[in-house]
Each structure stands twice: as C-alpha cells, then as structure tokens.
Amino acid sequence: METNNRRLIVFNQMTLDGYFTGENDDISWAHHSPGDVEWNTFVSGNMTGEGVLVFGRKTYEMMAGFWPSPMAKEYDPIMAKQMNEFEKVVFSRTLSNATWNNTRLIKGDLVEEIKKLKKEEGRDLVILGSGSIVNQLVQVGLIDEIQIVLFPVAIGKGRTMFNDISKPLNFKTKSCRSFKNGNIFICYENA
After folding, report:
1. Which CATH superfamily is domain 8-14+34-190 in?
2. Alpha carbons 124 and 79: distance in angstroms, whole number
3. Contacts from 114-117 at CB under 8 Å and sequence distance 24+?
4. CA–CA separation, 132 vs 148, rounded Å?
5. What pLDDT is recorded for position 2?
C-alpha cells in the first residue's frame, strides 16, 4: 500500500513589482487592518495548525523575535498564540540552538533533510518567507505548491523569491481569490 508523502508548501506575500521583502528585509508594506473582517477570516482560516512551519535562519530570527513578544500579543493575539504553538523547523548552519517554543533546529543538508521530512508521516510542511531555502528547493523540484498573497503596493527595491534560479520554472494556477482590500491570493502548483 502506497502512502502519501507530506507536501511542501510555500506561503509568501508579494508586492505588485514582485518583491517578497523590501530593502533590509522590510515587510512593513504587508500590513493588515484589525477591522478587515474578510481578510482576517481568511488569514485565521489559513493558520489552523494544519502544517509544520519551516524557516531559514533569517526568517526564523525575525519571527522568533516578534511573535512571543507582548507587542505581538497586543497586535494580533490569535495569530500570536497560533505562531507560538505551531510545530516549527528551522534550517541553519550557524544557529547553535532554537529557543522559540516547539522549534527543531536542523543543521544538515537542506535538500536531503527536506526529502526525509517529506517521507515522514505528519502534517504538510509550510515555508514562510525564507527566500534562500525557497530558491534552493524550487530548483530541485521539492516544492509542491506556492501560495502567494499579492498586495496592491509597489516598493521599487527588495528581494524576489526566485533571485537565484538557474532555469525557467513553470507553474499552473490551482486557485485564485480576490479581496475587497485589494489583496489577491494565488495558489500555484508545478506544471
């Protein structure tokens, strides 16, 4: 009997001009309004705990520095609770430990370790941010789905998710949804 492998999903926010972070990894453009019921319902629905969060070191340090803080709990108490409770994996060759609640540090070869994780039973793996690991994994065909929230803003400079790809990559649209606030959610899978 064949078992299904876990999927590896990327969930990222992007500007109209294709950046997922601005200069100095700024993501202040990707804000949401606490009063935006439609958008907040969508975000809460996406954060149901059905996946294991996967980070590279930079994104991990940014998230671990914010979500456990009193500011995060005040800004978005539901999201802060979820982010702190989720199972998390961080890939890094330089971190000596991962102190954020429910986080496992993996120092081995990224591609080989992801292959192992995908073969294990469990919830899907969801990469947030982490452009350097997205670049490496998309080129070797390990990413099963890319979910992008397109924000109606242009920032002019920053980093794309695919800065270092060595060949064209083709995807097909799995689903798409627009929101009254101007955001568009697009889900792609490999073509």
Report:
1. Dihydrofolate Reductase, subunit A (3.40.430.10)
2. 19
3. 114/8, 114/142, 115/142, 117/6, 117/52, 117/89
4. 16
5. 43
Taking alpha carbons only, the member of 157, 92, 94, 147 closest to residue 124 is 147
Q: What are the residue boundaries of the structural domains of the chain, listed by start? A: 8-14+34-190
Q: Is the dihedral of CA 131, 44, 67, 109 positive or negative?
A: negative
Q: For residue range 15-44, what is the model confidence (pLDDT) as tens digits?
A: 999 999 888 888 888 876 767 888 777 877
For residue 186, give Cα distances in angstroms to 105, 147, 151, 171, 181.
30, 6, 11, 11, 15
Read off the DSSP letter of residue 34.
Answer: T
- Torsions phi, psi for 135 (to 5 deg): -55, -45
- Contact present, 120 and 106 (Cβ < 8 Å): no
